Amino acid sequence: xxSELVDLEKKLRNAQLRPTKQRLALAQLLYADxxxxxxxxxxxxxxxxxxxxxxxxxxxxxxxxxxxxxxLREVVxxxxxxxxDTNIAPHHHFFHEQTxxxxxxxxxxxxxxxxxxxxxxxxxxxxxxxxxxxxxxx
Length: 138
Hints:
alpha+beta, Arc Repressor Mutant, subunit A, 3-stranded antiparallel β-sheet, 3-stranded mixed β-sheet, 4 helices, 6 strands, about 35% helix
């Protein structure tokens, strides 16, 4: 447990983020169980359950700071819902519309073809694909 906190503190410092008590608590919740997709609201609930006194606004601020620092990847599934992904390696997602679950698709499992010519002076920085799925049973 102590070495995990030291590793998280180092991870934050390497990303140029000050390892405050709240940031360390959030990092522990985010990274304790491996890669995951989480909403700010769910992280807030987990923080409260863990006894971390923190507002939802502070959760959002820290998630965006973690994202800007390259520690998280934000996945916007629609205009009202974003997930934060601890797996920052290139990959795509299945979005289960009925349950709200986000699931990884390995980058090599999906081929993107026929990208139109780019605007002049532009280059591709990434390609993010979200495949929306529903249960076929009605």
